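User: My instructor asked us to take a sequence, write out its structure as tokens, and then describe one feature of it. I'm not sure where to start. Here is the sequence I was given:
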Amino acid sequence: MQFERTIGIDYSGAETADASLKGLRVYKTEGDSPALEVAPPPGPKKYWTRRGLAAWLIEILAEPVPTIVGIDHGFSLPEAYFKRHGLVRDWDRFLDDFHEFWPTDAAHTYVDFLRTGRNPTGLSRSGDRRWRRHAELACGAKSVFHFDVQG
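Assistant: Let's start with the prediction itself. The structure tokens for your sequence are:
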């Protein structure tokens, strides 16, 4: 067995990094044991926060246990997005640009605010729900721009 531990993360939720998200769930296996849900650290928040999850991952991945982590999260955008907005295909520049227009790490800054115009930066970097990444095309998945629906 190449990995002794697996971690699966359902990264749902549109709140900020410090919001307690009911849809943010973490599951872990050790060896051949079944997957068990991992509760968030004790504290005032009932559910995981994105920032809390990041801190937990840093801690657990520092352990000398071969681990693989799967995260239900779109880490990039379709090629059409880069073309529409004149972006070069450079990871660091993409991250800088994305953060400028989608600063969801700021307090009380939600994806919906950026998408719907309460904070207009997201409107200038929106996408089209018909645009798909190569992986989405290959498996018939919905676009990362297909918001407000289950699945």
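For the description part of your assignment, you could build on this observation: The helical segments are 50-61, 79-84, 91-101, 111-116, 134-139. Try explaining in your own words what that tells you about the chain.
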